[in-house]
Amino acid sequence: MTRYSRAFAAIALSATVSGCAVIPEDMRRETLNEGDVPVVMSSKPTPNNTPLTAKLICYGERLERADKGHIGIGVGNIRDYTGKQSDLEGFVVTQGGALMAYTALGHLVPGITLHERFDTQVADAELQYIANRQLGDGRMHETVNEQSGQRDQVPWKPYYGGSVLQSDYYIVGGITEVNYNIQSGGGEIGVNNVGGKGRIFTMNVGIDMRIVGSQTLKVYDTVSVQKQISGYEVGLDVFRFFNSDLWDVNAGSKNQEPLQLGVRMAIESALLDIVPSVTKVEAAGCEPAVPLVEADEYAGGKAG
Q1: Do residues 105 and 152 share a domain?
Q2: Do 136 and 75 have their domain in common?
Q3: Do 189 and 265 share a domain, yes or no?
Q4: Mean pLDDT in runs of 10 for the chain (304 residues)?
Q5: Whether residues 250 and 144 fall in one domain
Q6: Coil vs helix vs strand at 203
Q7: How far apart are CA 99 and CA 33, in angstroms?
């Protein structure tokens, strides 16, 4: 075997051991604009589904059949209360818990009515424009003078109040736990500078949420949900002489279930626990597309 063939064999060995770290088949380089450097492109955008998406849709259909569409639900602030930050990446967990909750509740429509309460900036601005007689729709509108009874044609939209529909309940809460290493283990072995290693670890995130009556501020239900997140790492190291050649080969693979996906699933699970307390329709019987005992493997994309 020549030096070049041995080097090729080493590269092939590294690629084989890496296993899960192979280059995706659909990865390509494309020039998006004339004169630009080509950029790497891979998969197309897809719906951000989770193993609980099918269960949410099923529960929404059950609510629709039970004629619960008149129940209005909004979402308040679902903050990150952990205070955990990374020096390189900023906040450890997502700051968008409320957005995740809105998306999950969207799967229940039209079984429920969903109200915007998290970001009303545009609606508030337009209501203010109406109050100042500044908002129009390009048409003329008829108004009546309350004192004289005279009818006038004006370019601004008249507003008499009551266009914003009230909600019946709202959901608030926060991400309250990030526990980095609740279990880990591994091993490493080497003989004559040739060896391998493997490591597994598990962390978890926890959330606390509640559903509140919009007019009474009565708390109808609370829930605390945690989601364990697992990962693994394997590797192979070769550092030794073969005849007169020194071989230094390192290969491995590392995979972890996405942390923010774990947060999203915990929020979805919490909603399936607290929404039935006000709709009086249970979610039991609506099973997820992937059994929860297999959720870690599903979300982590284990292969190899």
Answers
A1: no
A2: no
A3: yes
A4: 48 49 72 90 91 95 95 97 87 95 97 96 94 92 84 89 94 96 85 85 96 98 96 87 79 89 97 97 81 42 36
A5: no
A6: strand
A7: 33
